[in-house]
Write a sequence for this structure.
């Protein structure tokens, strides 16, 4: 019965345990920890847009007297850090796996890259003619709206409920912020957007752990 | 009760197949990564993969990544089916009450 010296599992229960252990170990190794994919972005939005609101508060004077350049610099640095963390975590998990998943991820990445370049090139041409507060609203509402739309699309591609719901949430709060106006938009995006990303990261991690439990 | 598939009903090969079954649809994994996931020696894994390939359960393709050759492994449709049947048979052994799938 045996083809070689590879012994059969001792009994059915051992075989089932072996299957489940191996499948969950593989899934754990081939999927990055969801917290690494969500939380750095959540922190970037919370801190970056939070500082922006504190410095460029609606009304006459700033809540906190920060240098003008600080909020955007912090935002961009934190976004870059989040991107780097995501890239490293994904490379570790998905590296050396090729095929449909890799292609999906790559094309989705292209959509982000090419989409951003196109959108921001247009904005750059317009925003120089706008007053500072409106230019800031235009940029951030467009960037946040773009993020929400692509996250919904990502949810559709991977049938990922968490990502899709996050996209819906971000699209809705972006709308609310845009209606509320310059300054307030940054507050809404920082608290509801950044906070929302942190919450979804925790939920996605919990779902992941349940799935990966043998 | 049908006989358990002797190709899969073996500890090491069952681990190989279970690991491959956790990949996404249409995905292939590079040989060194699979080796690392399973903590097997290259020689050992090669032997088991060859047996699985002979049974038509895995597909092995050679490709190039830049200038380095790479060996990619995936479960074939036949292997997927065999693994599902095996898992079903094991579950039936453990819990013989007929489930909905079985008439």
């Amino acid at each position: 019965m045996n083809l070689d010296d590879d012994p059969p599992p001792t009994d059915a229960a051992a075989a089932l345990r072996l299957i489940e252990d191996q499948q969950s170990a593989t899934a754990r190794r081939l999927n990055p920890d969801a917290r690494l994919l969500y939380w750095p972005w959540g922190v970037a939005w919370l801190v970056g847009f939070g500082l922006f609101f504190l410095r460029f508060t609606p009304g006459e004077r700033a809540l906190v007297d920060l240098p003008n350049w600080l909020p955007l610099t912090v935002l961009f640095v934190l976004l870059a850090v989040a991107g780097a963390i995501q890239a490293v975590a994904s490379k570790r998990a998905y590296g050396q796996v090729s095929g449909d998943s890799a292609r999906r991820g790559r094309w989705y990445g292209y959509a982000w890259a090419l989409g951003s370049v196109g959108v921001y090139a247009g904005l750059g041409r317009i925003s120089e003619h706008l007053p500072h507060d409106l230019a800031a609203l235009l940029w951030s509402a467009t960037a946040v709206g773009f993020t929400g739309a692509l996250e919904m699309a990502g949810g559709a591609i991977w049938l990922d409920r968490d990502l899709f719901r996050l996209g819906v949430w971000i699209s809705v709060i972006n709308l609310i912020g845009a209606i509320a106006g310059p300054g307030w938009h940054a507050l809404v995006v920082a608290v509801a957007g950044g906070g929302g990303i942190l919450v979804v990261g925790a939920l996605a991690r919990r779902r992941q752990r349940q799935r990966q439990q043998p | 009760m049908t006989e358990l598939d002797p190709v899969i009903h073996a500890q090491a090969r069952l681990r190989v197949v279970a690991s491959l079954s956790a990949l996404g649809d249409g995905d292939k994994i590079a040989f060194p990564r699979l080796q690392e996931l399973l903590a097997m020696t290259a020689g050992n894994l090669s032997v088991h993969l060859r047996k699985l390939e002979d049974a038509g359960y895995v597909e092995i393709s050679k490709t190039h990544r830049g200038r380095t050759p790479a060996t990619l492994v995936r479960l074939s449709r036949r292997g997927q089916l065999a693994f599902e049947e095996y898992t079903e048979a094991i579950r039936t052994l453990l819990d013989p009450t007929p489930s909905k799938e079985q008439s």
User: Anything to note?
Assistant: Chain B has one domain: 11-94. Chain B has a mean pLDDT of 89. Chain B touches chain A at residues 4, 6-7, 9-15, 18-19, 21-30, 32-33, 37-38, 47-48, 51, 72, 74, 87, 90-91, 93-94 (CB under 8 Å).
